[in-house]
Design a protein that fits this description.
By secondary structure, the chain is an all-alpha fold. It has one domain: Up-down Bundle (Growth Hormone, Chain: A), CATH 1.20.1250. It is built from 16 helices and no strands. The longest helix is centred in the last third of the chain and has 37 residues.
Length: about 475
């Protein structure tokens, strides 16, 4: 290795390390809180709409499509606003949003699971309004949270570690939501009231987790507040995003993988209820399959020390695809469903853990390529595609269920059962394979290239200002 490569590697991989264990735990708990507040919609809202509120499955799925497309544009607007804020306090550029958005987000979540006894049309209107406002508020909370990694550290390996801690918190939130939600619902005699009680419990826990995160994470790197920009500057910034090929590639593969992941979460309730006829399987899935993601979260930093993040990402998709193909044919009882889904989620865990590290790398790539640094816009561009994937994950099951003749609460036909099985396994297997192909051919930001980019950026800047690493609690 020549001296240039050595200096670049030193810049990106070994210095400086500024994130403490307390910061990592705080960041993980923050995403656990995000999931308490968000996953209720992905896991249970479609089933609540169809089986409790009584909405037609296609109409309920359309609520997700419209609301998530709205959310996607909300993310871009929020990212633009955050990047161009000029009144930035000592609390940081991103941290304050965790503090102020938590309670409104919790109240809006509760509203989604408290549908009044209106007509079907009235219930649909309530669903649209409540879910769209909830999504906008979630953008205001989540876009700053995800944009924060580049301000916490410049170290590539440390970013992978933070991404893994975040994914661990996310999966803990998802696991607890999967294990605990339906048992709470079933303790209440009235099912609709049971849903509301369960959501209230998780909403309160979500607020407390986000406040804990606010108190224990820190933005170590800062830059001068930007001057007010005009429409020409904004168009230039958006144009820079489209020129960022690694970001565009990563966003597209997230459209694949995240829609597959969220669709599985939505459909597994139907799979357990109508194919296995065993609702306890839902809790076993939460414990073992989501628990397997913790294994991949632990393995990810170890693997990325030896292999390029790109290839670890692709490895996860290989594991995921193989497990789901086998699951389609053989998951005919609770044990096999949990087994194959656990292996699939092990593979998904590699992609999920690395997403946040890779998108942070894309921030530096975009600055290096165009001279424009925009953490919020990069992250919101990335989450735009994740919201589109959530739109697909909510809309597609509703349409397919209507197409195959699904009838809530009744014995399903063979065609309906095959539709549920295909949604659970084939959709995600196909998109995992597509992700492997696209990452291999289109994602060019390897570790070696990234190290050179960071070195070049530091030379351009001359120096950076880093805040003292003192603890703050307000």
């Amino acid at each position: 290795m020549d001296s240039t490569e050595t200096n670049a590697a030193t810049t990106a991989d070994t210095a400086p390390r500024v994130v403490t264990l307390r910061n990592k735990i705080g960041y993980a708990i923050g995403d656990m809180g995000n999931n308490f507040l968000f996953d209720m919609g992905q896991l249970y809202l479609l089933n609540y709409f169809t089986d409790v509120v009584g909405l037609p499955s296609a109409a309920a799925g359309t609520v997700f499509l419209v609301a998530k497309i709205w959310d996607a544009f909300a993310d871009m607007s929020v990212g633009t606003w955050i990047d161009n804020r000029t009144n930035i306090s000592k609390r940081g550029k991103f941290r304050p949003f965790l503090l102020w958005a938590a309670i409104p987000l919790a109240l809006l979540l509760i509203a989604n699971f408290s549908t009044p006894n209106f007509s079907v049309t009235g219930k649909l209107i309530w669903a649209y309004i409540a879910y769209m406002i909830f999504g906008t508020c979630y953008s205001i909370s989540n876009v700053p949270f995800g944009s924060m990694i580049p301000t916490m550290t410049r170290n590539s390996q440390e970013r992978s570690e933070l991404a893994s801690w975040r994914q661990a918190g996310s999966n803990l939130g998802l696991m607890l939501a999967t294990i605990g939600f339906m048992p709470i619902v079933e303790t209440v005699s009235n099912e609709q009231t049971g849903y509301t009680v369960a959501v209230v419990i998780f909403a309160v826990c979500g607020v407390l987790a986000q406040w804990f995160s606010y108190a224990n994470i820190k933005e170590n790197y800062s830059a001068p507040a930007p001057q007010k920009v005009n429409k020409k500057d904004l168009r230039k910034s958006f144009g820079a995003l489209l020129k960022n090929k690694p970001l565009v590639t990563l966003s597209i593969v997230n459209l694949f993988t995240f829609s597959a992941f969220n669709l599985k979460l939505t459909v597994q309730v139907y799979y357990c209820k109508y194919i296995l006829k065993d609702m306890t399987a839902e809790s076993w899935l939460g414990f073992f399959s989501i628990g397997m993601v913790f294994v991949s979260v632990l393995l990810t930093p170890i693997l990325t020390k030896r292999f390029d993040k790109k290839y670890v990402y692709m490895l996860g998709c290989v594991i995921w695809a193989v497990a789901d193909i086998l699951g389609f044919f053989f998951a005919n009882n609770t044990f096999l469903l949990v087994f194959f889904t656990s292996v699939a989620y092990l593979g998904d865990g590699f992609t999920s853990a690395l997403n946040w590290a890779l998108v942070s790398d894309c921030v530096e790539y975009g600055e290096w390529q165009t001279g424009i640094r925009s953490e919020g816009m990069v992250y919101s561009f990335f989450t735009y595609f994740r919201k589109l994937s959530q739109a697909i994950a909510g809309f597609l099951p509703g349409i397919v269920l209507a197409w195959v003749g699904y009838v809530p609460g009744k014995t399903q036909t063979a065609t309906a059962l095959l539709g549920i099985r295909g949604l659970m396994f084939i959709y995600s297997a196909v998109l995992s394979l597509a992700t492997i192909v696209l990452m291999y051919w289109a994602y060019s930001l390897t570790e070696k290239k990234y190290s050179g980019i960071v070195k070049d950026l530091l030379e351009r800047r001359g120096s950076e200002r880093i805040e003292p690493t003192t603890d703050e609690s307000n």
